[in-house]
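It would be a great kindness if you could assist me with a short task in structural biology. The full record is reproduced below for your convenience:
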Amino acid sequence: MSDALSFRPMTAADLDAVLKIEFAAFSHPWTRGIFEDSLKSYECWLMFQGSQQVGHGVIQVIAGEAHLLNITVKPESQGQGLGLALLEYLMDRARDRQAAECFLEVRESNTSAYRLYERYGFNEIGRRRGYYPAVGGREDALVMACSLVE
């Protein structure tokens, strides 16, 4: 990575750029409406490499518990450690808000994301059958959890 990473809160004005990355990265991306609702209720962050927007993430923190709702890195920027950098930033934000643990769901087929979460310290704790829409039906979500207490 030649350019330094930086982060800033997402705003409604960022949604066109966010959706461009989201739609490039996922077969079933979040919609504009989901992001608009998230901006009202959750912490939504952008990640930049130099001046280029390369990712975004959304976390919810309630009563000492965080939930990672979305983490996305631009497809052409993947494989450079940016996903881990974004995850670390979001988990630091959750700790700042006094979250003791974090939960997430990941598509069973998304092995690269699963490995990223495992590398950070998440463990699989359950499964939600048919949780995600998928080509030709539904796909299970693997539920993962990580302690944020050091």
The chain has one domain: 5-147. The beta strands are 5-9, 43-49, 52-62, 65-73, 101-107, 123-134, 137-147.
